[in-house]
Amino acid sequence: MKTAPPTPGIIRVRILFLSLLVLGTSLVFSQQVIDPTLMPRVTWGLVALGLCAALLWWHRRELDFPPLDFYSGALLLYLFWSWASLLWATTRSEAVVEGQRSFFFVGTFYLSYLLLANDRDFIPWLLRTSTVLSVVALGAAAVQLWGLDWSAPEALYAVKGTAGHRNLFGTLLFLLLGFQLLARGRLRGGERNLSLVLTGALLLLILLLQVRSVWLATLSALLLGTVLLVRQRWGAASFAWRPVLFLPLGALLVVGLWYARLGQWDTFRDRLDIRQYAQSETAVERLRLWKKTWCTFSRQRWLGVGAGSWQTHYADCSVYGLYSVELNDVTYQRPHNDLLWVASELGILGSSLYLLILLAPLWMCVRSSRAGPQPGPAYGRLLVWLGLVIISQFSFPKERPELLLWMALLAAWIYWDWKRRTADATFSTSRHYFLLGALVLSALLMGGAATQRLRGEAAMLEVYRYKSEGNWPALIRAADRAHSSLYTLDPNAIPVHWYRGIGHFAQGQYATAQADYERALSVAPYSQHCWNDLGSCLEKLGQRPAARQAYQEALRISPLFDDPKVNLAVRGYKDQDYYNALYWLDQMRDSLRAEPYREVIEAALRESQRGDH
Questions:
Q1: CA of 368: how far to CAs of 109, 115, 377, 382, in Å?
Q2: DSSP 432-471
Q3: 373 vs 18, which has greater pLDDT?
């Protein structure tokens, strides 16, 4: 099955796809919202996807369409199941966002396949585009590293890239590294040499940033690649790959010398020792988070809690042991394991489909390598996809649209090459016309829905500002502007109505505040802050038994949370149950905060004992 020369219409689609979708989704950002990259790129990507699909629809009679088989069927079924979970998801606004991400991946995969099957120049131009993005990513990192205070222990966490914080940036670097490796085997002349230089630079940066999941993926790909190269003898193609095998050693030597010059060689060596990481607080907390995610899955294993609802449900298994959550008010939005994340939200069916989508490309690469005389390119894609599978078990590449885009591109490339080498079946053209039209309409509708969420995030910035100023009427108005059916939680998994509740509570409007807190709990039923503040509100309204239950629920969720303990101690003091009040003060983690209350209660206890005598 050979790819035909591109028609002028297909060339226009390629230009639009690479410029709007690939470059745009990877580089768009906005400082007017809370997360500068996430929703701006989701919105841009969906709209760009719709425009590309519309142009393909215009030239639909020039296209060869893909078959419908187990893999494309699994993608469509996963997309359907993700949207179907809206029916049982607690936090439906977040389920919509997850559905948008799933649609973005499937839509990008579909359009990529169409371009691969109908434009023989698409792959070289895709690789050139990855070269441009590699230069941008390296430049952004170089600017930040230049002014970095290397003596600070956590200095590298300040390095951010085009994909967000350091861990996600490291995943993007790995993807770009993989595409540069593929460019090394596909491009010629100066472009080929440039890909080798960029490969070395990306390896250096990956080592410098010290993202362990990316290190593990890179090392695994390198070891397997070496074994394949030695055993399979890739022939002429191996000439393009042999220099790459020496780059990691050179990069490790350069980075090691750099840290030695800074006097931090011991620190860098410790980072390389996986045994030390396994005993670190970070690793222990990560394992606890996975255990609580498994607990969430075990409670609703068939359907899951619904797409986007993990962050509001995992606390039902208590956040005890997650000390960054209990002591530092850190919020986990993802369990740092995509498979567990999908299993907890979409149940057995969703996680089975996701596992098939994740692992089938490995099998396709092996089949492709055996079907042609030059297995090198198929092995190259195998190594990159294997690294992504490894990263997905320790991070959350599924969250970011730019990572989803490059993963979809690679999956489509693997799938197309497998079909090209092993089969040439095609699916009904008329049905593809329907799918393409549905893709156009759905992408534009979802892009419009994403703009509503962007407006919500922009208004939440005002909510944060008014909260810090104590301007409660303005906070309530801003929260009203932020809230909609498509935006009910801020990025920290705090309901918008919780902010309304604290505004009304501060103004003495306790009945209205109670309604706000109850609405907040309807979308985040296991928020310890919402339960504690609802208890305070019920206390003000004289509903003491209900208030006590709310405080106790907050403590069940977060046993180290001191606020409900203070409230229960104060309630005991007012009821003249001084021993019970002292009991709750003894349970507090912050003894300095408890001391003023203790002095008052102990004085009251002594007075009551004198009165008894």
A1: 19, 19, 9, 10
A2: HHHHHHHHHHHHHHHHHHHHHHHHHHHHHHHHHHHHHHT-
A3: 18
Task: Determine the straight-line distance between the first and last CA of the chain, rounded to whole angstroms.
Answer: 100
Cα–Cα distance between 504 and 475 in angstroms, integer? 10
In the block, which residue shows the tokens 């080498």? 421
CA 302-404-414 angle, to 5 degrees, is 95
User: Tokens 């590294």 map to which residue?
Assistant: 177
Beta-bridge partners for 161: 164
From residue 82, alpha-carbon distances to 96, 101, 350, 425, 437 in Å are 9, 10, 8, 28, 21
Q: In whole angstroms, what is the distance from residue 405 CA to residue 381 CA?
A: 16
Q: Mean pLDDT across the stretch 541-558?
A: 96
Cα-Cα-Cα-Cα dihedral of 439, 443, 449, 450, to 10°? 140
Residue 83: other Cβ atoms inside 10 A: 18
**Which is more confident, 160 or 353?**
353
* Chain center to CA of 132: 24
d(CA 307, CA 296): 13
pLDDT digits (tens, 9 = 90+) for 563-576: 999 999 999 999 99
Q: Would you put residue 583 in left (φ > 0), alpha (ψ -120 to 50) or beta?
A: alpha
> Tens of pLDDT along 215-231?
899 989 988 887 887 76
Would you say 363 and 317 are in contact if contact means Cβ atoms under 8 Å apart? no
Where is pLDDT greater, at 23 or 350?
A: 350
Tokens 């098939």: give the residue: 356
Sequence-ordered alpha helix ranges (H) in 372-400: 376-392
- Closest to 36 in 3D by CA, of 481, 543, 397, 402: 402
Give the pLDDT band (50/70/90) at residue 263: confident
**What is this structure's pTM?**
0.93
